[in-house]
Design brief:
Two copies of one chain form a homodimer. Helix content of chain A is about 35%, strand content about 20%. The first copy, chain A, is globular and about 70 Å long. The first copy, chain A, has about 475 residues and is α+β, with helices and mostly antiparallel strands. The model of chain A has no long low-confidence stretch (mean pLDDT about 95). In chain A, helix 1 packs antiparallel against helix 3 and helix 13 packs antiparallel against helix 14. In chain A, strands 10, 11, 12, 13, 14, 15, 16 and 17 form an eight-stranded antiparallel β-sheet that branches. In chain A, strands 5-6-9-7-8 form a five-stranded antiparallel β-sheet. In chain A, strands 1-2-4-3 form a four-stranded mixed β-sheet, with helices on both faces.
Amino acid sequence: MDFEGFLKDLSSFLDKNQILLEKEDVLFYSLDRTKDFEPNGSCVVFPKSTEEVQKIVLLANQYKIPLVPSGGRTGYSGGAVATNQEVIISLSKMNRILEFDATLPAITCEAGVITKHLQEKAKEHHFYFPVDFASSYSSLIGGNIATNAGGIRVIRYGSLRNWVSGIEVVTGKGEVLNLWGKLIKNNTGYDLKQLFIGSEGTLGIITKATLLLTQIPKNTVVFLISCKNFSDVLECLKESKHHIKEILCFEVFDSSCMELVCSKHQLKNPFSNVPSDVWYVLIEAEIHQDEEIPYMDFINSIADFSIDVLYSTTESIKKGFFRFREDISEAVAMSGRFHKNDISIPISYMDQFIKNIKELVNQHYKDYQLFLFGHAGDGNIHVNLLTSYEKDINQFKKEMQEFDLQLYGMIKHYNGSISAEHGIGLLKKPYLLYTRSPQEIEYMKSIKKIFDPNNILNPGKIFDL
Amino acid sequence: MDFEGFLKDLSSFLDKNQILLEKEDVLFYSLDRTKDFEPNGSCVVFPKSTEEVQKIVLLANQYKIPLVPSGGRTGYSGGAVATNQEVIISLSKMNRILEFDATLPAITCEAGVITKHLQEKAKEHHFYFPVDFASSYSSLIGGNIATNAGGIRVIRYGSLRNWVSGIEVVTGKGEVLNLWGKLIKNNTGYDLKQLFIGSEGTLGIITKATLLLTQIPKNTVVFLISCKNFSDVLECLKESKHHIKEILCFEVFDSSCMELVCSKHQLKNPFSNVPSDVWYVLIEAEIHQDEEIPYMDFINSIADFSIDVLYSTTESIKKGFFRFREDISEAVAMSGRFHKNDISIPISYMDQFIKNIKELVNQHYKDYQLFLFGHAGDGNIHVNLLTSYEKDINQFKKEMQEFDLQLYGMIKHYNGSISAEHGIGLLKKPYLLYTRSPQEIEYMKSIKKIFDPNNILNPGKIFDL
C-alpha cells in the first residue's frame, strides 16, 4: 500500500479540486448516518466521468488501496463509512441527467444525481419516479441502487430493484460493464445487474443508470383504522388485497406510538373511546371513480376486524392522519435513550412474532418501553425500545446488544430478515448468520472475489473475506 | 464417468418407476420444441423431493455425470435438450401446490407444477398469476423461472422475475439454498435468487418457489389502430403511456401479417380503404369507469398518428381483434419454409432498426417475404422470413445463417438482445458475443464455476466453459 504513489498518479488526471485531503473534510465524508463508527478515511476523490472512476479503481488495484464508494451518505448501517484509512470515492460530481426516453418511459442519469432531482425531472415530463423516502433530498441515485432502497410505497411499487432498467458499473477489477441498458426483455444468460443492486458498493461502482418511470398517482383516499389486535390487522390486510386495486401504503402502529405522538405534538387521538392496547392501520389507496364513500366493499369486509374506520380524500385531513405514523420515529428519538431495528418477516408470521417480542420485553426489559410500527404490508416492522436518560449508557448498550441477539434469534426462527431496508454494512455484519445460511455467505464471498479479486471495494462491509 | 455405478447408486433410493431407461422414452425427454438437435440422453430420473434432487446432484458430482434439468420442455432454444448422453432430471413428479398465503398474496409450490394449474389455483382464491403464454398448459413453474418466462402481458406485469418471491434451489455443488422465501423486503447482501432466474438450469435446479399473485383484471377495452408508418406506432405508444393507466398489452404487426392471416383464415381486414404498407397496433387496457368511449383523451391524442381507430369492450369483438395478431405465427408456419427470430432492442431505436431490416431483406433476400410483428411495448419484435418449399433446404439454411449474423450485427449496434424471451440454450450459444460483452461472459463463466464447479448442470448450455 503506497498511498503517496497512489496520490501522485491520481493527480496526473484529476484536478486539484477533485481531491480532498483536509482532515476535517475527510472526516465529514467518512461517515454516514450511523453514529457507531470512528471516521477515519484518508482522502476523498471526486471523479467526473466513468473513465475517471475506472482509472481510480485500476490505480487502487495497482497500489492495493481500499476504496469506499460514496453517495449521499444517508445510510443507517455503516455501508458508506470509512474507518480504516480508505480512499472515499464520491460520485457526487457525476450528477448529470442524460436523457428522458418517452417510450419506456425512463430517465438515464449519472449515479450522483440527487433522488429529488430525478423525481422532479420525471414530473416535468408528467411522469413519476415512485421510490421515495425521507432522505430523497440528499440521497444519490447510485447509492439508492447500491442499497436497493425501499421507502414508503413498496407495497405498491416494490423496491428500487423493480425500477432499474439498466446500469453502467465499474467492477472491482476496473472493468466497465453496461448491463441491460434500456431493454425490457433480455434473456441472454445471467442478469448480472441484479447482483450489483443491493451489494452496498462491494462488487462495483455504479456510474450510470436508466430508471423506469410510471404515471403520477392521482386522487387518493386515506383510511385510518383501529383494530383490537394484530390478528385483525392482518385480516384487514388480506381484505385490502381483495378489494383495493392500488394500495399505495399499508402502515401500522401500536397504542404506545399513538399516545407518544399525541403527547409530544399536542395532537388528539382522532378515535373516541379507544380501548387500551389497540393497533392502528393507515392505508392510502388510489381512487378511480367518484364515489361518495370510496371502497365501501372494503369497509364492509373489515366490519368484524375493525373497531372504527375513518377515511378522507381531503388533503389536509389525509396529512393529519399521516402525521400519527410519520412522527413516531422522531417522537421516540426525542424521549430518551432509544434503540432501533429495521427488520422483516413473512407477513403471515407477524402476529406470533409480535407476541414473542412483547413477551421478551415484558420479561427481560422491564425498564424499556416498546414501540412497534412500520410497513405491515411489506412484513417490515420497526422495533424501537425507549428508556430513560438516567440509564447508564454502557449498561444500555450491553442490554441492547443482548436484545438484538434475542430478536435476531426469533427472526431466524421465522425465516425473516435482520435488515429489511438498511442493508448490512458494518453495523449488522456480526449478525449475518441469523439471516443468511453459511452456504449463502460462502457463495457471496466467492462472487465478491470474482468481481473484486484484490478486495479493493468497500472491504469489510457485509462480510469479511 | 461411471454410468453403471451411478445407476446402481441411484437405485438405492429411487423406485424403479423413477428411472426411465427405454431408448424411445429417453429420446422423447431429450428434446424441447427446437428441431435442430439430435436427441441423445442416457436416462431420465424423476425425483419426488428436494432430498432426492440433492442426492442425484451429489451422485452426479461423484461420478461426473452431466445432468439436464427438465421441465415441460416447451423451450425454443435447446436449453433442455440432451444431446450428449446426459442424465435428464425431470421435475415433473414434484408437482404439489403447497400453500396459499392470503397476506402477500402468494402460492408456494414445487417446481413441477404446470403453469395452468398454478393459474387455476390462484383463480380459486380470487387472485391472478399474471405470467401467461401459449405453453401454459404444458410448461412447468421451475422451467418458467429458469428461463424467466415473459408472455403476452409483460408491458403490464413484467417477466416472471417480478413475480418470484423466493425459491428453493439445489446448486450444482449439491447444496440446498432457501432464497428469500416469503420476504418482500430483505437487504442482507447479494440477492442470489436473481442469478438462478433465467440461468437455464446451469447454476442450480429449482425445486420450490413462492410466486406472487395479483388481482384479476376486470373489464378491458381493446383498440385496433392503423398507422401509416412505425414512427407513428411509437407516437401511439408514447401517448398510451400518458393516457392509459393499465396497458395489458401493446402489440404490433405489419401489412404482410394482416394480409396473410386474412387470406389463410378467410377473414376480412376490419379497416376499409387501407393504404398498402401500414402498421397495425393492438392495445388491451383495463377500464375502471363506465364511459361511453373509453380513453377518449388517448384517442384524441393519437389523431395525428393514426389512420383509423377501432375499439371494443365486447368479448367476441375483442377476440376477433386478437386473432389478427395471435394467428400470425401459425399462418407463417403453414405457408412455406420459414425462419424465426425473437429479439429485442431499446424501443426508441425500433423505427430505424425496422428500416434497416427491410433494406437488408430487399437487397439480399429477394425471394423471401418478411413478416414483422411482436410486443412493441416491450421492444420485442419477431422477425420472420418466409420462402417457398421449392427452395433447397440446405441453401435455405445457409442463407438464414447469413441473415442471422447480419441481424445480430444490427442488434449489437443498437444494444439489443438476440434473445428477448427464449433464452440462449444451445441454439443461440454461438452468437452470445453479439449481445453480451466478453467481460460479461467471463463473469458469467466464473459464476457458473462457483455454483457448479464440476460442470455437472446443463453443460454446454448458454456458453462453453
